[in-house]
């Protein structure tokens, strides 16, 4: 039965979901991670409303990319499933998606402000501000609300996959952060970093009307970890400073 | 002896009380949760001043709804018992009550400001601001102080049970949050969420003179989790995103 | 050898010291608790600079009240020992003293502002603001510095034991909080509460130019836990909400 | 093989690195500690991008002081290795270096503000503000970036070893804190203290336009822990209050 997705994906999605409370990004059952198998045309996601401490690999739900139908699993998938699906369809490079209500990133989303680039901690991962979407319209809320939540992110990035690679995170206005990456685990890492840079930005902004650091410093940090000239990390270790 | 209340209630009240320090809402022995058995006409509550690490099921105190008399238990009940009783008497839908001194919610109570609705994290649970009561009068403090602490909450909601269902939390001015729900466990969840949204609101307000998100977004989030069209959660899981 | 102090005192002082990092009030080896045996004319205190994880009951140092001489123990006592001694000599009601560098209380000490009474969380324990001392003079720093650190607290309270009972905490300007109580354990509890109310006050003050709650509310909270009409707690439990 | 460095150094460097997440200064794999063996002309440092939970003593990398060549270890050393090397070459008193992205210190670095001396918690360790460097130039970013990151610190202190002893920490503008000390362990302690004083300073500054405490108080605290008249600590314990 579970052969429907490539080996290891369900385990990776389970572990990434279980990491959400461990890294302090969760309140109650909030938050969810998914991972995609593009060959099989499906993604695996957390079920809706299951407490993390009770979550097992058998609770995960497999959803078809093309139409959102549940193809495996006894539980209802996360209510945010359609948002994940929209992001997978729009951005071919995305292998995993994470959504949390982590508090500092949500504060920026609620204030409808981008998380600005204020230092190398940000530039190490995000090659630009973490942008905030426009508000959803009344029509977008009334019908296909969750899919449209993904749609305003796609809109924000002009559907440009390269932009999704360079800044793998966005804040949905009045809601909170969605992050993504090449794998479920990477999307979770970006959620952790998004919250960290939001937290640091809040404190930086309380200290001064901030001037961003020089662009050459930021570029140096981004390119030493990403692209052809990257020299961060070791072959057998995840590329995360 | 313990047959006076329905099976499982004492255990649920114990677990909800023990969860207060686990979820980081307690300082020392502060905080208390109760659960009601309306058929038996009693509620079960934490004893006064017992440290959480020493609390056992036998320490819980059973109190009569009609007059506040202790009907079971060797210890004195929480000093806040009469506040709980007042809320049970006023709002028939309430099955459990939680009181904490969680720091961000207390900050709003001390500033005598409602926790405003600034995003979907709030709207998922509270269908409106978490309101703050008026100050108690000198007379209300002098006599039946704890009962009157409940009374100002009842006043604030015009004694309307439906309002108590839609926003299951209030801040007593200069004091702190009281939350409630269909069960003791739900009242605790609302205390956790009340603190989380207070924390996020504080940071949002530091970022911008806040404009609330459009009403249609907030309504969508409330109704996807509450009422006839709710589609959040799974049959066997608690309905908490 | 250890018979010099009353039974249980060394154990109580050890446990109160070990609790400092457990309750999150310590950085590295910072902080110290002592307890006095007035009959024996000595007090027991943490040695200087010993990491909490290595601290054992044999490391504790016994110091004579009258002149500060070490009467038992192989290690040098805390550098703050003379401050503790000064407080014991000035205030007969004090049975234990705690000093920490807990961050929010230190922030008030550094800003040279009292922690104001903004709600019942404060009034439950402190019957008035937690006051900040004047700066020490150059002479007071040059000679008997640590004793003089206690002296500015005594000065602040006009040496009035009753004031020390009603507000068992003070902030030394530019330095940090000292708290005390009937026992070592109570002095530690007051340190925990001092930090909690400082934290809540910081957030309250960020929300509004604060008006204190009505005096009758604050008095009610203080008197329900202290004095002849107190009705908080249970005979066998510590009197701390 | 490991005989290349003095006994105990590798273990000390391992433990100091593993302590970074334990004391709450790390996000993901961020942060690194090194320790030097000046006789052998090498230093030992964390490898690049290895998660703390997977880090073993065999992963540590030994680097030659004179030219930065790896002389032992299978993994690539931390990308920040050249910054450590620059500091070792410039300041003969430095025995260990720590770099973290701890959030409050990074906020000051991003705001390009010194962490001011606002109280004795700061003065106990740092005999002056923790200074922030100038921005790196475009040329300094383009070539030998990491070495130049050390260079702007050396510049800031005019290459004066005594200044490096008195304030064993600096903030690289737009980046974050580097701290050092006589040993790897001491450099880590200074990182912990740097973050603590940054946190306290942020809260102090939110309370008042701060006036520093009198110089005689600050000097007293520094000299009671440092220099010929120090009287803090015990012979067998680390000298850290």
List keywords for this structure.
zinc (chains A, B, C, D), 7 strands, homotetramer, 7-stranded antiparallel β-sheet, 39% helix, Aldolase_II/adducin_N_sf (chains A, B, C, D), 9 helices, L-fuculose-1-phosphate Aldolase, metal-binding (chains A, B, C, D), alpha+beta, 241 residues, Aldolase_class_II_sugar_metab (chains A, B, C, D), Aldolase_II/adducin_N (chains A, B, C, D)
Main interface by residue count:
A-B, 37 and 36 residues
CATH topology of chain A: L-fuculose-1-phosphate Aldolase
Q: State the major sheet of chain A.
A: 7 strands, antiparallel
- What is the structural class of chain A? alpha+beta
Topology diagram in text:
The structure is a homotetramer.
Chain A: H1 9-22, E1 32-37, E2 42-45, E3 61-64, E4 70-72, H2 81-90, E5 96-99, H3 103-111, H4 120-123, H5 138-142, H6 145-156, H7 161-166, E6 169-172, E7 176-181, H8 184-207, H9 215-225
Antiparallel strand pairs in A: 1-2, 1-5, 2-3, 3-4, 5-7, 6-7
Family (chains A, B, C, D): Belongs to the aldolase class II family. AraD/FucA subfamily.
Keywords (chains A, B, C, D): Isomerase, Metal-binding, Zinc
InterPro entries (chains A, B, C, D): Aldolase_class_II_sugar_metab, Aldolase_II/adducin_N, Aldolase_II/adducin_N_sf
